[in-house]
């Protein structure tokens, strides 16, 4: 079974590119360095399941297939069944899809993995995108602060039986206190001190995210945008190891 334990290596690199050759090169360079590879909407929309297979070599670390499904329960269940043969370690849905949709995703993931004799993927839910702040949330019709909405959706996700949530590292400490040690708390919005925030609005450093209780850190452009992605990832990991 793929090891999704964050304690061994918490960093999942976000491979966000339209270019298949570039994705393969990053994956090869980062295999053995990072704890996992995250493929999301950019890559999957361009290359689909065949692209995922091309990027995930035999030695590749666990796959987080970040497709953020958000639809009615029957449709999400179908999408989950469709990606199950790719053997992702983690898949996700939007928590705002509601309890029945999250249950449908969970059930489909378990049933299809069993049918295919594959390990069951962890199913987690996105709470509030890390690119949103309080005014952005309010503009969507949801009352701020973001933290309240994150707590509400995280509680709903765990109550629905999901394995954890995607949140910003800024919410992790509160969610650990709310939910305990079991749920995966997967955090994008992670930026080393020297990196630009870019379109991320709720960020912390990798060390702060881990110290707060994140189980997995999703880091994309600070690694893939570097001249030497493997070196950038090693620096982040060395920094994490050097801190108590
Ligand atoms: O709330 C969310 C959910 C998912 N993401 C994804 O994580 C990576 C972050 O990449 P960076 O380059 O480190 O910003 C990206 O693939 C997003 O789709 C997120 O950022 N926030």
Automatic annotation (TrEMBL):
The keyword Phosphoprotein does not apply. Belongs to the OMP decarboxylase family. Type 1 subfamily. One of its GO terms (molecular function) is orotidine-5'-phosphate decarboxylase activity. The active site is at 66 (for ompdecase activity), 68 (proton donor), 68 (for ompdecase activity), 71 (for ompdecase activity). InterPro entries: Aldolase_TIM, OMPdecase, OMPdecase_AS, OMPdecase_bac, OMPdeCOase_dom, RibuloseP-bd_barrel. Its EC number is 4.1.1.23. Coiled coil: none annotated. This is Orotidine 5'-phosphate decarboxylase. GO terms for biological process: 'de novo' pyrimidine nucleobase biosynthetic process; 'de novo' UMP biosynthetic process. One of its GO terms (cellular component) is cytosol. PANTHER family: OROTIDINE 5'-PHOSPHATE DECARBOXYLASE. It comes from Roseospira visakhapatnamensis. Keywords: Decarboxylase, Lyase, Pyrimidine biosynthesis. Catalyzes the decarboxylation of orotidine 5'-monophosphate (OMP) to uridine 5'-monophosphate (UMP). Residues 10-236 form the Orotidine 5'-phosphate decarboxylase domain. PROSITE patterns: OMPDECASE (PS00156). It catalyses: orotidine 5'-phosphate + H(+) = UMP + CO2. Gene3D superfamilies: Aldolase class I.
């Amino acid at each position: 079974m793929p090891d999704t334990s964050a304690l061994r290596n918490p960093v999942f690199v976000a491979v966000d590119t339209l270019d298949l050759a570039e994705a393969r090169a990053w994956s090869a360079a980062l295999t053995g360095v990072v704890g996992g590879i995250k493929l999301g909407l950019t890559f999957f929309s361009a290359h689909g399941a065949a692209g995922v297979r091309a990027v995930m070599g035999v030695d590749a670390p666990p796959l987080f297939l970040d497709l953020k499904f958000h639809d009615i329960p029957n449709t999400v269940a179908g999408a989950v069944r469709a990606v199950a043969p790719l053997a992702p370690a983690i898949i996700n849905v939007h928590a705002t899809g509601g309890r029945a949709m999250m249950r449908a995703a969970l059930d489909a993931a378990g049933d299809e993995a069993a049918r295919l004799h594959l390990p069951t993927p962890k199913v987690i839910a996105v709470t509030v995108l890390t690119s949103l702040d309080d005014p952005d949330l309010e503009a969507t019709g949801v009352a701020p602060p973001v933290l309240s909405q994150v707590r509400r959706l995280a509680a709903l996700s765990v109550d629905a039986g999901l394995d954890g949530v995607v949140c910003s590292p800024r919410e992790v400490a509160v969610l650990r206190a709310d939910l305990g040690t079991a749920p995966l708390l997967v955090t994008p919005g992670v930026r080393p001190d020297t990196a630009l925030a870019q379109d991320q609005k709720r960020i912390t450093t990798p060390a702060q995210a881990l110290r707060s209780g994140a189980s997995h850190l999703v880091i994309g452009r600070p690694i893939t945008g570097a001249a030497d992605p493997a070196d950038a990832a090693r620096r982040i990991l060395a920094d994490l190891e050097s801190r108590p």
